[in-house]
Design brief:
Blueprint: E1 3-12, H1 21-31, E2 43-47, H2 59-62, E3 66-69, E4 72-75, H3 96-99, E5 103-105, H4 108-112, E6 124-126, H5 163-169, E7 178-182, H6 191-195, E8 201-203, E9 210-212, H7 222-226, E10 232-235, E11 240-243, H8 248-252, H9 258-261, E12 268-276, H10 280-284, H11 291-298, H12 305-313, H13 318-326, H14 328-335, E13 340-341, E14 352-355, E15 364-365, E16 371-372, H15 389-396, H16 401-422, H17 428-437, H18 442-454, H19 457-460, H20 468-481
Parallel strand pairs: 1-14
Antiparallel strand pairs: 1-12, 2-7, 3-4, 5-6, 8-9, 10-11, 13-14, 15-16
Bound molecules: iron/sulfur cluster (2 copies).
Residues 184-187, 190-192, 210, 227, 229, 231-232, 243, 348 line the site of one iron/sulfur cluster.
């Protein structure tokens, strides 16, 4: 066992109100600079929708992530050899139109316009050319209520839905949407790191944060193609690539990343997960249907004596192990099994997990527009949810619908149990049935409710004390043992941006 610690995140999608405070907090701190205007290290998109950059999930277009070849994997479209043939023109690289042309407004017109009958307006001006522009798209251009033929209907996750299934979603009474906030996943098998010919990308030994060494970056932009989440960006002003740094200077001083600290819906959780780096190759190259289970198995029980001993032998500080024991991410992902990775089929082993949305959990609408309830009480069955399971499975479980159903059944059981606690108007047998279907009990349901709804700041963010020395020790130990760690990437001491 090669035990490492990873700072990981959970986003609870039912709580996101799409306010974009997270995006603005990140923008103000990190990307309010020349060359970075179009970058949103944190963005929030509406689903169903095409996202930012447009259709980023479609790897037939962008060729991001890894693909399986027998027992091994290789980068889909980037990497040292595949990238070489596209050295002068890479057809898979997103261009500015795929993101959007960034703009500001000519605010001076509000003050300088000559006196007239009409109110002066501030016209949009391109941040690239400086000229007036007609705004055509933006980083969250998808349509709330998801009815748009240009956006919702082109969502890549509809690919396995039949035409009638898709069309039923666009009936006015059935329309639904949810928000999907996204940052870099600080993956265990990061395609960006694997693709860089200059060795500029690296994963920090002590907490797994993935960074780009600005001195080493030679503008190959392989990482932009390789990242299937499109979370590595090219700065046209500096000639270097950039990405989310998980606010590591804040983490090192015990503060939550800016997007998390500012989250209005309190949907975000951050904590340490312990994992076995020896298993990365096995997980990344396994059969698609096993991807979620194998990924869950790579994370270890921080209370196990064997794990604690092996972690200490690997140079891990006791305070890191203690943080892993208190981690809210561990509870959501491993203990309760109600948070899932986004697009595990990209095989990067992402460390950002989502509690999938319940969406309208109330009675559904029948074909004549009449509200109906298929159960004895307020809630429709899982199968009556407005967004088809196939859609959610395409987002979170590489197509495994049962895994999504298991999560939603547990979340529904928590709702029914809490209704019983607070209102007490449901028949006993219905409560028992819900708890049994959700594979949970009143004690666990109360714990899930508490961390979801009432958790304090310190319960939501359990940040391990910084241990830069761990990184150095791990690199030295690894260099002695085998020269390289994990799968296809080197660990380096952080040199920062
Ligand atoms: S999500 Fe982040 S760590 Fe993962 S491949 Fe993309 S840029 Fe790299
Ligand atoms: S700040 Fe929180 S609630 Fe608002 S959009 Fe971002 S993730 Fe959602």
């Amino acid at each position: 066992m090669d035990i490492r610690s990873q700072v990981s995140m959970v986003f609870h999608l039912d709580k996101c109100i799409g306010c974009h405070t997270c995006s603005i907090a990140c923008k103000n701190i990190w990307t309010d600079r020349k060359g970075a205007e179009y970058m949103w290290w944190n963005n929030v998109e509406t689903k169903p929708g095409t996202g930012y950059p447009t259709k980023w999930e479609d790897q037939d277009i962008y060729k991001g992530g890894w693909e399986r070849n027998g027992d091994s994997i290789s980068l889909k479209g980037a990497g040292k050899l595949k990238g070489l043939k596209n050295i002068f023109h890479n057809p898979h690289m997103p261009v500015l139109e795929d993101y959007y042309e960034p703009w500001t407004y000519k605010y001076s017109d509000l003050f300088d316009a000559p006196e007239g009958d009409d109110q002066p307006t501030a016209r949009p001006v391109s941040l690239v050319t400086g000229k007036p522009m007609d705004v055509q798209s933006g980083p969250n251009w998808d349509d709330d209520l998801s009815g748009s033929p240009d956006y919702a209907r082109n969502d890549v996750n509809f690919k396995d839905l039949s035409v009638p299934e898709q069309e039923s979603l666009f009936q006015l009474e059935r329309m639904t949407f949810h928000y999907l906030p996204r940052i870099c996943n600080h993956c265990l098998n990061p395609a960006c790191v694997g693709s860089c010919p200059s060795g500029a990308l690296y994963k920090r030994g002590e907490d797994g944060v993935v960074l780009i060494n600005q001195e080493r970056c030679r503008a190959w932009r392989m990482c932009v193609t390789a990242c299937p989440y499109k979370k590595s960006y090219y700065n046209w002003n500096t000639g270097k690539s950039e990405k989310c740094i998980l606010c590591y200077p804040r983490l090192e001083s015990g503060q939550a990343p800016a997007c998390m600290h500012s989250c209005v819906g309190r949907i975000r959780y951050l904590g340490v997960m312990l994992y076995d780096a020896d298993k990365i190759h096995e997980v990344a190259s396994c059969d698609e249907k096993d991807l979620v289970d194998k990924q869950m198995a790579i994370y270890l029980d921080p209370f196990s004596e064997e794990v604690i001993e092996a972690a200490k032998a690997n140079g891990m500080a006791e305070s890191t192990i203690r943080a892993a024991q208190l981690s809210p991410v561990y509870k959501f992902v491993k203990k309760w099994k109600i948070a899932l990775p986004l697009h595990p089929e990209f095989r990067t082993i992402p460390n950002l997990f989502y509690v999938p949305p319940m969406l309208p959990a109330m009675a559904s609408v029948d074909s004549e527009g009449i509200y109906e309830s298929t159960t004895k009480s307020l809630w429709a069955g899982i199968d009556q949810y407005r967004l088809p399971m196939k859609y959610l499975a395409s987002l979170f479980t590489a197509g495994n619908e049962q895994k999504v159903k298991d999560v939603l059944s547990k979340l529904l059981a928590v709702k029914i149990h809490r209704r019983d606690v607070t209102v007490g108007d449901l028949p006993r047998e219905e409560i028992e049935e819900a708890l049994s279907l959700g594979h949970t009990d009143p004690t666990e349901a109360d714990s899930i409710f508490r961390l979801t709804s009432l958790a304090t700041f310190n319960e939501r963010f359990v940040i391990p004390p910084a241990h830069r020395e761990e990184s150095i020790e791990m690199i030295e130990a690894t260099a002695d043992a085998k020269g390289e760690t994990g799968f296809g990437f080197k660990m380096q001491p952080a040199r920062g941006l």
